[in-house]
Structures
1.
Amino acid sequence: MFRGFVTNASNPKVLLFYIAFFPQFVSADSPHKTLAFLLLGAVFVTLGLINDCVIAWIAASAARAVRSRPAVRRWIDRVIGAGFIGLGVRLALTKR
């Protein structure tokens, strides 16, 4: 978790996003700019957490559905395998 925080905190794209996006929503003559930025940050983090939880829930549901049906898993393996073979053929036929 700490490693992920350090990676995101040192990512210049994240800093540029906050610098470019957040000031639009804070009034220039507001007496509580720091509080507004902290609130916007908290809302952003909360929405990200909700989004990640929903994605994890959907992925877990899909994994349970696939695990309970071996035929579905075989078809998924075949489709993914065919996709990799197709990508390999395309890569082999690519000219520089």
2.
Amino acid sequence: MSKQDPREFEQKKIKGAVRTDFILSAEIVAITLGIVSDAPLLSQVLILSGIAIVVTVGVYGIVAAIVKLDDLGYWLREKTSRLAQAFGGFLLAMAPG
């Protein structure tokens, strides 16, 4: 890891997270389709569209928040307050990867 370019490492992490999120979103839409399969076509389209939007915003929003947690941790580690530095270290320890 020490010889690996940090930008390349970050890009690989992001690519893996996006792939995982896409699969999760597709599974949720497939489950929803199974639930609404007996509904009229217009209802199916509206429900699936709504679920797809909510899932996409929700899943990618959570991933974005997690990615930003380590940025917040680095920012807090640079503060003069020991409490801020400690909390920043905690966030960095909890960050995935």
3.
Amino acid sequence: MSDRPANGSGYPEPTSVDIDAATRRLMSALDALESAVERRREADRDENELATRIQALGADRSRLADELDGSLVKSRKLERANREIAERLDAAIGTIRSVLDAGETS
């Protein structure tokens, strides 16, 4: 049998060595839990920072898309104006040539 006295429950009485060992295991488990909680808090902070950055990037993307759309509209207007000016210049050059040709033949 055991050399420990029974406490009436059928289990031997714990010794101070047993209590010290259990206390160390408990403290070690609590330290591990505290470390895990801190790592989780850091991960949550990192996740929140990442979500904030993603949201900011989304806002920047929307703003840049709007600016690009505006630039494309302006570009198309400028291309149209350029074509109209080129057509008018061609017509003016044609008129000037015909006037010069008519003056030379007279």
4.
Amino acid sequence: MDFLDAFNVSASGLTAERTRLHTVSSNLANARTTRTAEGGPYQRKSPVFESVPVDPFGDALDRAVAGVRVADITSSPGEGSRVHDPSHPDADADGFVTMPDIDILQEMVDLMGASRSYEANLNALSATRDMALHALEIGGGR
């Protein structure tokens, strides 16, 4: 494994966590959306990550090192919660509205986790850059 592989692993983590941040913010923004183009309330979205080998043709260490990519973004199959609000434009004949099945607290926890993971990947990227620069200084100082 070389510096470029380390950069690629960190960059893939940054990209994946950015997607996670976008899906969480979409969930938060639509936590009270009762009508979508597909019909019904907004459904919670979450990214599905998978590992991707950095160098599938390298030696055993290179094959073991993997980055991450977003394989899919899935929608929650949850039914949502029914809330009695007869004045709501999407209320049924009994006055109930189906709200999205989104827990704001859980979304905030996911947001903090994604933010911390993003920061960890950024720190790894910075440390790798610093090591590469020091290696160049050592090699050029002969």
